[in-house]
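Sample entry (414 residues):
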Amino acid sequence: MKSRADRWATALLPFVATLSSGTNAADQNVGTGVSPVPNTNLTRVTVASGMTAGTSGPTFVTAAPGDVQRIFIVLQNGIIRQLQRGDGPTEHTVFMDIDARVRSVSDEQGLLGLAFGPDFATGGYFYVNYTRNDGDTIVSRFRTLDGTPNTLGDPTSETILFRIDQPSSNHNGGWMGFGADGFLYIAQGDGGGGGDIHGVCGNGQSLATLLGKILRIDPTGTVGTAPDCGLDAGPYKIPPGNPLADGSATGNCDEIWAYGVRNPWRNSFDQQNGDLYVGDVGQGCWEEVNWTPGTSTGGENYGWRLFEGRHCYNSLQGCGATASPAGCTPACSDPAPVGDPLPSGTRLPIWDYSSGPGPECTVVGGYVYRGCRMPNFHGKYFYGDYCAGTVLSFEQSGGVATNHQSWTSQLGTS
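Predicted structure, serialized as tokens:
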């Protein structure tokens, strides 16, 4: 198994902040007063600096719904910082500090996800995904000090929604985001180790675990049925329409929206149409970006560990695999076509690329640009590779990745 030490989103922090902070779906007037500038070039701008790297550095940048005055920077060690629009790169301040309850000694543990609720402006609720001191994944709800968006996060307001037992320290995923349906989507890795050796077909293919999945819940506990597989379950519910829900305590985990992922590291919804993009870090040969249209009703199988990218994989043969493990379906073909060509709802990546023998080794998922300033970038999905220091893009057309471009030389990343 290749090491993932320190392969975080820090190299892309300035660029990703530019792409994401001004295009929140809740802000319907984000383009008001913005004059489009045709044929623009990309320039790397330092948005925030002065934060420690390694296991204390940034893992995510986001904004609250409708708020175009601040960005929030998630640090792996359990601190969320905020930076006001117009302030200098080092003028960020602490929004909330839960360092004492977060384990970040391993390169893939820590505070990994942050999502602001659609009601943040009126209730002050936000959600985090972190590795607790005992190594388990915790998904929690917090509130600001007075319930308004303009005060600090209150570390004493934590309500744990659920816990996931983690067999290893790596592959924790951690991304969280609200869909257009108002429900919270959560990405979880396959439980770690190497090759997803958990069971005959791996955690990614098992519907009886939350590991290796994209989950969908109602974190307010308002709509749906009782929790199923989340340990220490708090006040959340299973939304109507979760595709694999069977209502059985011994059957499928009702929280599952999609499955078959290894270590989904940075996902996003296209703010225009709700399409979901999932950057899933590969084992040792192929990195992948998965795409699902916003019209999806869920249930997609993204393939891991029967596939790595669009190629056969099993833990005994690794990159040299030519077939699925005995007793596991669907049978793989190598390379498989893009789209949904296989039984069991398997939907293979819209794009995959080799992670050897060159410098590429860890995909970092990004965003579709839907801003107002630069119309020539409208509809481009930007992503990167941490090891190679690249910033790349493609455009989705009919479920196919087209118009691949590299912006690395323009941006001067490393």
